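pls design
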């Protein structure tokens, strides 16, 4: 605007093109900011002391349920001489009754939104409607869940003065244009920054015990996530439908999990094309919606499972499960052996070529490469883990751990049926074109556990004592045979059902003297 800036420390006019002037202005700005922060710290320390020792009301919007009244002359003589008066909080009885009602209903089990809905139905004005002069930023459109939550979390209703629950933060409107200014935002302060008076400072609306109980309830509900919070909303109806195949059904076209839904009182599993990523290649063959009705799948599925795990078909099931294991191929041994054979075959061909009169210098690089591949394959074979296959005895023990599958599937408890499906490793694939459902069950028969598996480990404690650390289905028959041959005692942690099933077999009966579980 053509206005010149004169700075006393510069002895005259500020020249923005002068590097010395710019450096001095930066120093002066830093010193001013430092002094500003010192003033803020001194003022905040003084206000904290006033709240802590005197319980003084430091201003701001009055909490709902209180009004500000005259408390006599200001305790500071200078301010008292200037006409300032002390302001204290007093109870606004109609609003205080609403606060007591909110705490009582919350302790009775209602949630934030349920309490707010009840207040709106009773025609009780919300805080912004009751005090519009101090809530100009509010719409006065009724009680909200956030309104009741702020009341339930405000400790000032216990009669103690609280200061510093919120802290002001200045945020730039445009980080690329500092001259555009900033806006003030309020954030929750750290717990160590909140100050509470030593003695009650104003009349209480709720007791400390009720307030503390409400906070404990809020924390317990929040610890359970959304499900725990939903328990507070008593007006929210409980789920009427249980999806037995939740997370188990996949679409054959896109291989995605199908989502459960209720359509005309029937439970369906749906795969919707519009939820797929635009441009996906499977969209060309995917219908807009693929629907699979649950009651069409469950009866034949349960009948098949009951037939497979029927005690009369036990031997056939064990033979099928034991024969379906991948054997040594699961560890990649066959692939490594093929590489080893290929490397040895190349070496033999090169040696035959040299014997036939080929210059050995021309085959040096090829022979070195083949020898390196052969050595790498040999070392890889030596370090491969043992096969994870198990014998029929362990499959029998696994079936024992499943319990009575038919009884669980015929029960009326949806949770029990779903758990059976999970234990059996059920997978359902729906082919929409053929209108066919392919169901596979793969119970845990391999030595698989957390973080890549847990194998039985033997740690010697004494000549006649072994400690067996085993997980689920981990205790092996060779280990028990060795223990029986040595006449040792076993101390087992975990896998008790698996061990008990093995010990019932005739080959171990009476062989192991002591088993401590």
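designed seq:
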């Amino acid at each position: 605007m053509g206005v010149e800036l004169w700075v006393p420390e510069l002895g005259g006019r500020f020249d923005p093109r002068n590097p010395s002037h710019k450096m001095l202005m930066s120093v002066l700005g830093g010193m001013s900011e430092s002094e500003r922060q010192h003033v803020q710290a001194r003022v905040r320390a003084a206000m904290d002391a006033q709240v802590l020792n005197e319980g003084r009301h430091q201003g701001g919007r009055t909490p709902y349920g209180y009004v500000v009244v005259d408390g006599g002359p200001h305790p500071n003589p200078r301010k008292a001489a200037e006409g300032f008066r002390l302001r204290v909080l007093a109870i606004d009885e109609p609003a205080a009754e609403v606060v007591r009602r909110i705490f009582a209903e919350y302790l009775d089990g209602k949630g934030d939104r349920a309490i707010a809905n009840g207040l709106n139905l009773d025609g009780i004005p919300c805080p912004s409607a009751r005090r519009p002069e101090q809530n100009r930023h509010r719409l006065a459109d009724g009680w909200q869940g956030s309104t009741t939550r702020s009341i339930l979390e405000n400790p000032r209703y216990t009669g103690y003065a609280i200061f510093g629950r919120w802290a002001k933060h200045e945020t730039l409107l445009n980080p690329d244009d500092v001259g555009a200014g900033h806006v003030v935002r309020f954030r929750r302060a750290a717990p160590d920054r909140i100050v509470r008076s030593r003695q009650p400072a104003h009349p209480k609306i709720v007791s400390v015990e009720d307030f503390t109980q409400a906070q404990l309830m809020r924390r317990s509900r929040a610890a359970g996530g959304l499900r725990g919070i939903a328990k507070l909303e008593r007006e929210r109806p409980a789920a009427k439908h249980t999806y037995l195949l939740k997370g188990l059904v996949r679409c054959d076209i896109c291989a995605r999990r199908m989502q459960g839904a209720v359509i005309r009182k029937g439970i369906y599993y749906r795969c919707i094309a519009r939820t797929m990523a635009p441009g996906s290649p499977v969209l060309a063959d995917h219908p807009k919606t693929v629907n699979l009705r649950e009651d069409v799948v469950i009866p034949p599925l349960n009948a098949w499972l009951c037939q497979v795990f029927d005690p009369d078909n036990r031997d056939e099931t064990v033979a099928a499960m034991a024969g379906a294991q991948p054997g040594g191929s699961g560890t990649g041994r066959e692939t490594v052996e093929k590489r080893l054979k290929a490397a040895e075959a190349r070496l033999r061909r090169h040696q035959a070529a040299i014997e036939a009169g080929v210059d050995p210098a021309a085959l040096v690089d090829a022979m070195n490469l083949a020898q390196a591949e052969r050595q790498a394959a040999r070392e890889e074979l030596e370090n491969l883990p043992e096969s994870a296959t198990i014998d029929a005895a362990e499959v029998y023990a696994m079936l024992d751990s499943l319990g009575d599958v038919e009884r669980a599937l015929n029960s009326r408890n949806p949770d029990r049926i779903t758990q059976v499906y999970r234990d059996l490793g059920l997978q359902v694939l729906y082919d929409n074109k053929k209108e066919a459902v392919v169901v596979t069950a793969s119970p845990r028969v391999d030595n698989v556990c957390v973080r890549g598996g847990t194998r039985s480990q033997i740690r010697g404690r004494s000549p006649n004592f072994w400690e067996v650390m085993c997980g689920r289905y981990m205790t092996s028959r060779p280990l028990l045979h060795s223990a029986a041959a040595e006449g040792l005692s076993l101390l087992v942690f975990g896998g008790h059902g698996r061990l008990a099933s093995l010990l019932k077999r005739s080959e171990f009966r009476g062989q192991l003297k002591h088993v401590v579980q």
